[in-house]
Amino acid sequence: MVEPIQYFDEPPVVTADDTVAKLCATSNRSAFPCRRPFVRLYDYDSGIDQPGPMAKMVRAGDRTGLVLYSLLLTKVSGGEAPSVALPSQTWARALGMDLPDTATARSTVSKALGRLRDNYRLIDKSRRGRWAEITLLNESGDGTPYTRPKGESATDTFFNIPHALWLEQPVGHHEPWYRVLTLPGLAVLFMLHWYKEPWELPQVEGSQRFGTSPDTIGRGLKELRELGAISGHTSYREELRSPTGWAEVIRYERLSPFDQVTTEAKTPATRKAKSAKRSGKASREVR
């Protein structure tokens, strides 16, 4: 639905919240899709298992890059073309910079876009008049063109990050999630969306899977639990390598507003598994 144009008698004061809300509204979606290889490329059939471009951002401490890239995915997700051209001040305001009209803010945005292009290979950048035109590339960082994900293969499967990241506030806070969360919190939120269901995320093994440090995962999990974004359920399993014979396991579950189901790849194996599950359910109902 197209929003009606509003007119004012005086120039309005446009805030970061106003700008982000407008970006979300123009996408005509309630969440933005992101291919899983951005976080971790895992293909059981080929044996590929490697961290995605997000790991480079985290290791570089590039919180601005991660937020800006997520804003780009949000804006482009509702359009036909994988490109967008807006003033750098618009991106600076959306990022929550105090003085978005200054040369410092514009420089910060320009440098972040440069890193997305040169360091992570997630965008291409050209000029459209006075503005930078940003064209998304595949989330895997392989430099191939961006298309909207459909979940038709292991490299095309994706998850959805709710727009609540931009529009809602954690309990007890007056700013939205994306301005409250630190880089570890944002990164772990993406990691937990990589999984379809509640899952273990041990710090050491998780750091190997996702290419970040154990400390990053530990801090991110702690932050998300304290803010009420996730819960952790403790259980135990047998473990030969443990002196006690058992090991403690914490399975993390995303809570509202981040509890949307991750989209599965529509691979032949997935379709076969779903078909078998439906058949089993039908046979149980017959019995």
Quick check: average pLDDT? 87
As a percent range, the share of strand residues is 15-25%
Task: Give the tally of structural domains.
Answer: 1
Strand order of the largest sheet: 4-6-5
Report the major sheet: 3 strands, antiparallel
Q: Provide the helix percentage.
A: 40-55%
Shape: globular
Radius of gyration: 21 Å
Structural class: alpha+beta
Number of strands: 10
Distance between the termini: 48 Å
How are helices and strands ordered from N to C?
Answer: HEEEHHEHHEEEHHHEHHEEH
Number of helices: 11
- Low-confidence spans: 264-287
Topology record:
Layout (H helix, E strand, L loop, with lengths): L15 H12 L3 E5 L4 E4 L4 E4 L1 H7 L3 H14 L6 E4 L1 H7 L8 H16 L4 E6 L2 E6 L21 E5 L1 H4 L9 H4 L2 H12 L4 E2 L2 H8 L3 H13 L3 E9 L7 E9 L13 H19 L1
Antiparallel strand pairs: 1-7, 2-3, 4-6, 5-6, 8-10, 9-10
Helix pairs in contact: 1-3, 3-5, 4-5, 8-10, 9-10
Written description of the protein model:
With 287 residues, this protein is of the alpha+beta class. The chain is built from eleven helices and ten strands. It has one domain (16-272). A hairpin with a 7-residue loop joins β9 and β10 (246-254). It has a three-stranded antiparallel beta sheet. A three-stranded antiparallel beta sheet has the order 8-10-9, covered by helices on one side. A two-stranded antiparallel ribbon has the order 1-7.
